[in-house]
């Protein structure tokens, strides 16, 4: 194991060196954290999650094209949540000016947990859908081989052969490549808009390598680069550092702290206004908010998006957990009372991404007591807490002691789509991700330092 990860790390170090040799910065490179063994996942729910993915892609895309729906769904939230409000203002400005690009590129990841309280029955419940910077498609393309190797070394050959192939990086890149091709300029680049400190670079690199295989040029740029060296020409073509950008692939820009200055916001607006294909564009970004997720769960809403497809509605709705509004009014009051009476049954969620923002247990009461009489409560939504059955495993991460713990897993499914005007050019499910964390933690993803990469072992 050490050897295999050693090789991977060496490879990482080399690519880190190549990307940073001009900066002369010494970077620490370590392996991505992972479970010692794969985690059993019931085959039926796994297949259910794959099967619904293209419908989720369609749903997200339809929402992004429905400004009235977005405005109504987000009205109460944007009044109190500055970050969502700011994004919404960019969306409104783009609507007013008219979208300059009709090519749409969506790279989504829909996340689920299994509710397993019911006599061992597993029910697939969506935690959220990520329309912005959905990560780990790259690294999860490598984890199958890691678990195959571990299981072989442990003498569990039969299980090792049952580890599923998985290559989201190739599928994500296929969609990016299609968008680049439709943009139609061979010299224009795919620009990865990345963080100041690029912690998850290797996950992104796998997608870049897939693009290189197709001779598609890529660049990694930060908001500061766009602020300093970005401009639009008279046709709204985006240039950064003298190079035309065909696709902006946002891997940064989903948290308030990603926008430390007005200039950063101006850079986001410039990219949105440009002819470049944005992944995601501002309206698709908003379609991925937790408030939209809650509104979708209201009776009759899914039907509006799929008026003549009751089976699709049923398939999507089957994955919804209970989601409740905290808007001002009797329904929101009912939600507050319900949460205060049984806080352990729920999760209170603000409009934030990236892990570590949700509120659980007694803290729900503290927060709600403070905001329940004011519009501030509309910054949150309430969700049923999902209860997967814990499974024992070892979580391997740098500097952490090796111990067996009770673990909970979250299954993600990657979906991609490309649309040009009214034509859907691509709509595919391209792979999965299993993340596992100790049951001691209520919240937090891999990037937040809580969960680790895993593989499903179908049972
Ligand atoms: P984020 O955008 O921060 O990733 P999520 O909604 O995905 O927000 O929540 C973060 C983490 O919190 C999830 O990965 C999961 O571990 C936990 N979590 C979120 N919602 C629920 C829920 N309804 N039941 C149980 N755990 C949840
Ligand atoms: Mg999440």
UniProtKB/TrEMBL annotation:
Catalytic function, reaction form: gamma-L-glutamyl-(2S)-2-aminobutanoate + glycine + ATP = ophthalmate + ADP + phosphate + H(+); gamma-L-glutamyl-L-cysteine + glycine + ATP = glutathione + ADP + phosphate + H(+)
Keyword Signal part of the UniProt annotation: no
GO cellular component, one term: cytosol
The record's free-text note on cofactor binding: Binds 1 Mg(2+) ion per subunit.
Alphabetized UniProt keyword annotations: ATP-binding, Glutathione biosynthesis, Ligase, Magnesium, Membrane, Metal-binding, Nucleotide-binding, Transmembrane, Transmembrane helix
Keyword Cell division: no
GO molecular function, one term: glutathione synthase activity
Cofactor entry: Mg(2+)
E.C. number: 6.3.2.3
Residue ranges constituting the Glutathione synthase substrate-binding domain according to the UniProt record: 188-287
Binding residue positions for ATP: 128, 290, 349-358, 360, 383-386, 410, 437, 443
Ligand binding (substrate): 109, 204, 435
Pathway membership: Sulfur metabolism; glutathione biosynthesis; glutathione from L-cysteine and L-glutamate: step 2/2
Enzyme's top EC category: ligase
Binding-site list for Mg(2+): 128, 130, 353
Membrane-spanning parts: 7-29
Family to which the UniProt record says this protein belongs: Belongs to the eukaryotic GSH synthase family.
SUBUNIT field: Homodimer.
Purpose: Catalyzes the production of glutathione from gamma-glutamylcysteine and glycine in an ATP-dependent manner. Glutathione (gamma-glutamylcysteinylglycine, GSH) is the most abundant intracellular thiol in living aerobic cells and is required for numerous processes including the protection of cells against oxidative damage, amino acid transport, the detoxification of foreign compounds, the maintenance of protein sulfhydryl groups in a reduced state and acts as a cofactor for a number of enzymes. Participates in ophthalmate biosynthesis in hepatocytes.
Name of protein: Glutathione synthetase
Native organism: Sparus aurata
Lineage of producing organism: Eukaryota, Metazoa, Chordata, Craniata, Vertebrata
